[in-house]
Specification:
Oligomer: single chain
Number of domains: 1
Number of strands: 0
Helix content: over 70%
Number of helices: 5
Shape: elongated
Distance between the termini: 18 Å
Largest sheet: none
Length: 166
């Protein structure tokens, strides 16, 4: 395979990955984080210059600031804890979509071996989609699920290689 075919295969892989990413973003939007709206409306900092005050007002000013920041932290943590399950579900679903599309693209590429650039581009794009799905959901997977998913993907790739590339 010459350099032009390799570059075309790389271009196919890149455009395929972008196409799938835009498709997911278009048809399966990420959930909006309600915490963003809450904090856009609230003041970001406590406006006070405690250093210029005299005791005991200085100490009271620092206590008020600390209370303000503590309350913001508690609200942020509560909001995040409520949003996390929704976000995790979305990440899991995107992982499943990307893994399925990646495997199907690799299989499709194997059937198009007559055109090396298309074959290699689809295989590479499928592999990148699988990797993207795993990376997106990796932090949310428990270690057993990581092991099982990667084992299944490895077995599928080895099986495909053995059956089609021999």
């Amino acid at each position: 395979m010459d350099i032009k075919q390799k570059l075309l295969a790389l271009a196919i892989a890149i455009v395929l990955v972008m196409f799938i990413a835009v498709g997911i973003d278009t048809f399966y939007k990420a959930p909006l984080n309600p915490c963003d709206k809450i904090y856009e409306a609230r003041p970001k900092v406590f406006i006070s210059n405690c250093e210029l005050l005299q005791e005991p007002n200085k100490t009271e000013c620092f206590r008020e600031q600390q209370l303000f920041y503590d309350n913001q932290s508690l609200e942020a943590q509560k909001c995040y804890n409520e949003f996390r399950p929704v976000e995790n579900l979305y990440k899991r679903n995107v992982f499943i979509i990307l893994a399925i599309i990646g495997v199907l693209t690799i299989v499709l590429g194997l059937f198009l071996k007559q055109v090396p650039a298309v074959y290699l581009g689809l295989m590479l794009g499928g592999l990148i989609n699988i990797i993207e799905g795993v990376v997106r959901y990796w932090a949310n997977m428990n270690e057993y699920l990581r092991f099982v998913i990667l084992g299944i993907l490895l077995a599928i790739l080895i099986w495909i290689s053995y059956k089609k590339l021999r």
